[in-house]
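ok so for the tutorial part 2 we go from a plain amino acid sequence to predicted structure tokens. step 1 is just haveing the sequence, like this:
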Amino acid sequence: MQVTVRDEDAILLEPILKTGRGFYVTVAVLLALIGVGACMYGLQWRYGLGVTGLNVPVSWGFFIINFVFFIGISHAGTLISAILRIAQAEWRRPITRMAEIITVMVISVGGLNILLDMGRPDRVLNVIYYGRYQSPLLWDATSITTYLTGSVIYLFLPLIPDIAILRDHPSRKFHFFYSVLAMGWTGTPGQKHVLERVISILAIIVIPVAVSVHTVVAFVFSMTVQPMWHSTIFGPYFVVGAIFSGIGALIITMVILRKVYHLESYLKEIHFQYLGTLLLVMSLLWTYFTFAEYLTAYYGHEPEEMRVFWSKFNGPYALAFWVMVACNFLIPLVCLSFRRLKNLTGITVASAAVVVGM
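step 2 — the prediction. this is what the tokens look like for a chain of 358 residues:
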């Protein structure tokens, strides 16, 4: 016997199944931006990376920063969801689905930035055909592909019961599509037991995979001999930064969806309080790693590293550096340490600051 859509499920699905004028306006604006981006990329394809201004060999520039940022945000989903599931934190339930979707979306965008960064994207398969595992770049490609595959499976498995609800919805839209994806789910105790067991096993597997992804991303930088990059701290530093920025992005997404779809009874303030506390902890961890990195560089006092050091502290990059410190440490510390400020507005401000700072 197949499950039928429940009244409370139908009520929850109602605002999502309806699409109003705002939806189509948003889609139109996003399609326009995609069109502009496609035109810009067409110029780059035709004339080469020189049109971007990235003609200094040591500078990887905007594309690689986007890559690191999006791969970092991807840790908001699968990693946090898996840790909370293993810890049996029941408060996680309303947020895990959004977190897991963010992971799949942004890791795909992050991977796309690699293609944008290549002057000859038609040669991308050379990484597979002629790749050598002595190169950190191949480590990167392998770990990201594994993480994306695992994240898609980890997102899909808990969705099966929900897809069955859509399959049995009275509107019967896309019935065949949902029937295939539901994989014959009827909600029997045996099916629930097997599904929970598989998800629990995958949650354990996905944690080291997620940690390895941003560690390997860090290796792409730290295996070079560039001043202030050639550091053993980069692996854990990048993992902490990834979780940090990921939580910030997750909170902002939750705030937007809560407002647009009127999910106040589903995404309660207590969920934001818990995530705000987690964000504060990661802010302090990030600050600790940053302090350790710069203190070590200062006491080593190697000339090449000190040139980079002072260019950040009081040189041409000082404004960007101190804005980063303010956004990643001072603003979260103020907004999240005091009970009076740690409300929905304060947590949102702190999260937005973290995304900007990172």
